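Progress report, Aim 2. The chain analyzed during this reporting quarter is listed below.
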Amino acid sequence: MTAPSELTPEQKALLTTSVLKLSTELHVSRVRVNRVAIKYRSGRTHLMVTPEQWGVLQCFHTARRAPDVLCELISNRQSLPLAEYYELLIKAVDTGILQTAGRNLPPTVPPAPWHGRFHATPVLFLSLMAFGFASVFITLRPMVLPTHAWDLLIGWALVCLTTSIGYSFAASTLSGAGGVIYSPRWTNRTLTPHFVVDLDDTMMLTLSDEINVALARLAPHFGVAFITSIYLPGVLFPILLGLMYQLAPLGHTPLMALLRALYRDPLLDTSGNIIFTHKQSPALMLMARLKIKDKRFLLTCGGYTIVWLLLVFLTGSTLLGANAWELVEAFNNSGNLRFTAIVLLCAMGGLVLGAIGLGLSISFQFMMQWQRSRRKKRKEHQHEIPLVDTDVITKSLAEQVLFRDLSPADLSSLVGRLKPESYSAGDIIIREGEPGEKLYLIHGGAVEVLRKAPSGALETVANLSKGDIFGEIALLSGGLRTRTVRCTAPSLLLSLSKREFDALVISRLSRDAVETAVQKVAFLKRIPLSSNWSSAAISAFAKRSTFREFQAGEQLVVHGDTNQFFHVVYEGEIGVEKAGREVAILKSGDFFGEISLLQSSTSTAAVTARTPGRCLMMVRRDFLEFISRDFLIGLQFEDISSNRLGRPIFPLTHAVFIDDHR
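Predicted structure tokens for the chain:
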């Protein structure tokens, strides 16, 4: 799961607070049984999704927030895996398919006027006929090498012309199938300058139409090879080189487009360039790319590569064999290879070097992406002390469980009493055992909470950052500090004295309510489940949850009943029974019930109190809203539930839903 710092603030807002709406300028096509292609017409951007993902995007026909939709999907047993859901939304917004206020749309790209339209049947018939005639005549007629430089020049010009015609035929076939043509132009960046068009809209076509577009690009090359083998055999050599390139298993050649159409489903946009990964190392990114490839496609490409190399070798051997004696005689007489042999060797060497260069280019791109990610992460981890902004402070305090019930006027008064204090990295702010006289709000920087181990050494128990509060427990209890807090970076803290805390907070809220809230927060900060949650998330959980007391022998969950609560054991012991046998004992910090809430399923275990105690309890609706409003916590509970089940919890199937209560 990605760390929060690896998402931009804009992306975090998209997943939490932004209102999203499905664009009305969409072209949607069911290109395969399990693939739906979506195009934002104005921006010429595409998104390849599954039918289930398209169903999720349709939930945004009316303007809605991502957490609200997710909560509804989970309730209706229609949720995608959460990382997939978040990835889908981010990429849908990037392509303009989902839109939100304040986010720039992709620039408008008008389609090019294109009057040619070829229908599928003639294209398929002519392509197969050109392939058949060319294969027969090239095989049966003897091949000869060019005898003059003009033969090479004419052949080169024909390759340029044939490639241009191939793109024109492909564009007309695409247009005839209902696609749109973009950016017709002449390119000089290759050894064979030619006319080219962007055929990106091919992804909106069905399988048969996609095959026809690829064949339309190949057909002119086979047709010209057939004609030159009869009338201009001396020009056939450069024509064959051009044909071999078009048939090469490299990049965006028409043969590769044909293999992709035949042997691989279109690549899902939520499968590549994965945002929610553990670490962006080159090896991990490469493995992620390989995992999303179709194995059948990889095997086909590997087998075809061998066939293609063999074909290149046999063609070259045939050409050289036809003039073998002349080559030997010329070599003996002049001490040099013939010009045509040099050209052939250079061409074959160029193909090999091109394949090696492609591999190095891909490796270089992976390495550069990894380095950019590392530089970005280091930069984001550099803490800067911001200026004191009263609006930011007020918003931060309103998210804290201690202060969220105060009126706006009381919050403003509280902000006015806060005093800024600057600290350097390594400074001790409070020490364990000292009297508690102040509460601190971190406005900038970072601190660590330390406790004294039995050995006497200090060990870190928590790391706090901007927006977190510490020191409140001693103010409420009137006792001594229970932990030491030390700065890990230059920090700006805002302090509030005990006298002002009592006057501004305790006087307006009941002490019992404040102490209960602090109890919850302190408990949540120290248990493994929530120790890494943000201050706002802990406050939200404390606000939504209530204490439930239980007695020894009390049944908290009945086998076969629909569970409506998420429980975290605060104190006491709880037993989990299956088939009359106790399978687990839960203690303080353990939790249960999340799987049945996420699956809307009945319980397959009985949960009974072994001793008196208390639980923090949250009803199903509040629990689903809580995990939906913080994507990191949602991902955490998805991981926990999947590990307990031994399989991914999302998407749900029609199989029996299980709740292990572990």
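Residues 1-5, 278-292, 655-662 have pLDDT under 50 and may be disordered. The two ends are 22 Å apart (CA to CA). These observations will guide the mutagenesis work planned for the next reporting period.
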